[in-house]
Amino acid sequence: MVMKKGQPPAPESKPALPKDFFKQFKNKEEFHSFFTNLFKQGVEEMLQAELDEHLGYEKYAKDGYNSGNSRNGSYAKTVKTESLGDLVLNIPRDRNSEYAPQLIPKGQRMSDKLEAAILGMYSRGMTTADIRSQIKDAYGVEVSEATVSNVTNRIVEQVREWQNRVLEPVYYVVWMDGIMLRIKHNGHYQNKCIYLVIGLKRDGHKEVLGMWTAESESASFWMSVLTDLKARGVEDILIASTDNLKGFSEAIKGVFPRTVTQLCVVHQIRNSSKYVVWKERKRFCADLKPIYGAVNLQQAQSALQDFAQQWGGKYRHAVQSWQNNWTHLSCFFDYPLEIRKLIYTTNVIENLNRGIRKYTKTKVQFPDDQAAAKAVYLAIQNIEKKWRISLPNWALVIDQFLTLFEERCRLT
C-alpha cells in the first residue's frame, strides 16, 4: 500500500487467534482453567528470568560453572489474585539464598490491589465478615479473618508515624473534643474517650493533629495532649474552641499561656437547658438567642442581664452557668464576623466526630485500643480528603488574623 505524504502510519495489526481456537472450550470453566494455567506458566517463566538476571547466566549455561552460586530448585507459594483467585506458584531459589523475587516479593501473598480493596472496605466501616464475603464475591478469593487482620495491622505503623509527625509552629485556631467508643479493657467492654484536635493552618486548610485514647475525658488528660502537641513542634495557638469541660481553659493556659479560649456556645446552651423543665426549654433557648446573637459585647451583656432577671428566679443554676462562664463564652465578640463564625462553636470537630461514627457504625465495639485507633485513623484519612480546599473567604480571614495577631502569625 502506498502512503500519501503527511499521512500517519497505519497502526500495527495485532495477530488474532484462529476462530476455531475457542471451540476447544466447552464452557467458561474450561476457558478459565486454561487461562489460569497460561497465566501461572507466564509468571513462573518471568520469575525464572529474574533468577537468570540475578545469577548472571541462563539455566544450563556454561557461564554458571564455578560461579559461586546456582539454582536450587523451587518452593510452592499460594498467591491470592483479584481475577484468578488462589494460585499455587513455583518460586525458584538459589543455593546462597540471595535471590529476592521482585514480581512476587517475599512475605507477600496477595496483590497490592487486593490489599488496597481490603483496606478500603475496612476504612468504610465494613466488618471482617463482610469484607471476607465481598472479596469472595468480587474476586473469587477466600481470605480468613486472620488475613484481613494482618492486612489492616499494616496500618498500625502508619498510625504511629502520623501520630508522631512534626507539626506546624503556629495554628490560628484549634478545635478540641472527644468521641466515645466501646473498647475492651481488662476483659470487659467499656466506653473510652478518643481525644481529637483539629488545627487551622496558615494556608486556610484544616488538619487533624492527632488522636489520644483514655478511659474518660478530663482536663488533666487534655493537658497531656497539649503537651504532646508542643513536643511535636507547636509553639503557639492563637484561639482554641472547646466545650465547657471543667478546668479545660486552665489546662490550655498551662501549656499555651497566650491562647484565647472560646467555649462552645452550643455546648453551653445544651448544658444550661438541663436545668429547665422540658415544656419551657423552647422558650428558654429562644430567650438565649439575643445573648449570643448580639452585635457586640455591650449588647450581649445587656441581653444577659435581661435574661437573668427573667429566668434567674426560677432557674438559678441555669442562669449562673452563663454568668460563671461568661468570660470564656464572650471572647468571640472581640473579633470580626468571619472569625466569630469559626470559633464560637466546636461544629468543625463535631462534624468530624459524626463522620467517624458514620465510618465505624458497623463496629459496635472494638477488641482493643489498637483496633479502635486503626478504624478512627482510616476514617480520618477518608474525611480529610474532603478538606483539600481552604476555608471560604480565606484571603479576608488571614488578613484579619494578621492585623490582630501580627507578631504571632508566622508566614515563613
Integer average pLDDT: 83
Enumerate how many helices there are, as a single number: 16
Largest sheet: 5 strands, mixed
> What is the rounded Rg?
31 Å
SSE string, helices as H and strands as E: HEEHHHHEEEHEHEHHHHHHHHH
Shape: elongated
SSE-based structural type: alpha/beta
| Portion in beta strands | 15-25%
Walk across the major sheet and give the strand order: 5-4-3-6-7
* Beta strands, count: 7
Blueprint of the fold:
Layout: H1 28-55, E1 71-81, E2 85-94, H2 112-123, H3 128-139, H4 145-153, H5 155-163, E3 170-185, E4 188-200, E5 206-214, H6 219-231, E6 236-242, H7 248-255, E7 260-263, H8 265-273, H9 278-292, H10 297-311, H11 316-324, H12 326-329, H13 337-343, H14 347-360, H15 369-384, H16 394-404
Parallel strand pairs: 3-6, 6-7
Antiparallel strand pairs: 1-2, 3-4, 4-5
Helix pairs in contact: 6-7, 8-11, 9-10, 10-11, 14-15
Q: Explain this structure to me?
A:
The protein has 412 residues and is an alpha/beta fold. It has three domains: 28-61 and 68-95 and 103-109, no CATH class; 111-153; 167-408. 46% of the residues lie in helices and 17% in strands. The chain contains 16 helices and seven strands. It has helices at residues 28-55, 112-123, 128-139, 145-153, 155-163, 219-231, 248-255, 265-273, 278-292, 297-311, 316-324, 326-329, 337-343, 347-360, 369-384, 394-404; strands at residues 71-81, 85-94, 170-185, 188-200, 206-214, 236-242, 260-263. Helix 10 runs antiparallel to helix 11.
Name a few traits of the molecule.
412 residues, alpha/beta, 3 domains, 5-stranded mixed beta sheet, two-stranded antiparallel ribbon, 7 strands
